[in-house]
């Protein structure tokens, strides 16, 4: 609940040249809930996501995950503490098979460069456990039959499923999903939504960036709205969608 947020951020700012992309005074992400981060194009959603997930550094600001400071901590370390993210344009490695991509997910790494240095350790130390977990997740996400295929051969929706499954390899507590519905075939939409709801049922906390309001209305418990780098509204979906500040933020951008 809001009384025990999984993430608390204060005075987080990031600018690019003269553009103040993020200028957030205060943000709390409720634990064991699904929170949507929405806002018009250029609002700063991706920048905030990159900061919180350790893929970019703030100019200033502080945030804590489970009560411990996480500001400026790189993504792979955050993954060890229980926070992972997915990417809008999937980073599923084109030259790896589905199963290999899953195994790499166990390292909390996203880069192909890491393969050479990390795989030998995985092999010796934990390969069996990692493979078992990978295959279990692939079954759950209905990608088991694709395990030996190159990731590049998957459809857009299957890549989103793989991206989500791969994020679960580190057994996270907090999962940040970057536009999980973008480019997904309508036939796979419900399945993706069900998987996100499952994360919550399994005790995880989800934060997602999404333009698809269907997803926001159907599965978000809480909505945070950004405009021009700031948080302009937050609350349950029904209330937030009717908030004049939110309507203004969207209309103002067109
Ligand atoms: P969208 O919904 O279109 O993805 P967004 O809400 O994610 O938008 P950001 O991508 O975070 O918005 O961008 C916020 C602002 O910061 C924009 O004005 C953008 O042009 C600027 N910006 C973001 N990243 C960079 C960068 N690497 N270099 C320069 N400007 C940037």
UniProtKB/TrEMBL annotation:
Residues of the full protein shown: 46 to 299 of 319
GO cellular component: plasma membrane
Domain of life: Bacteria
Protein name: Amino acid/amide ABC transporter ATP-binding protein 1, HAAT family
GO molecular function: ATP binding; ATP hydrolysis activity
Keywords: ATP-binding, Nucleotide-binding, Transport
Keyword Ligase: no
Species of provenance: Ornithinimicrobium cerasi
Domain ABC transporter: 7-253
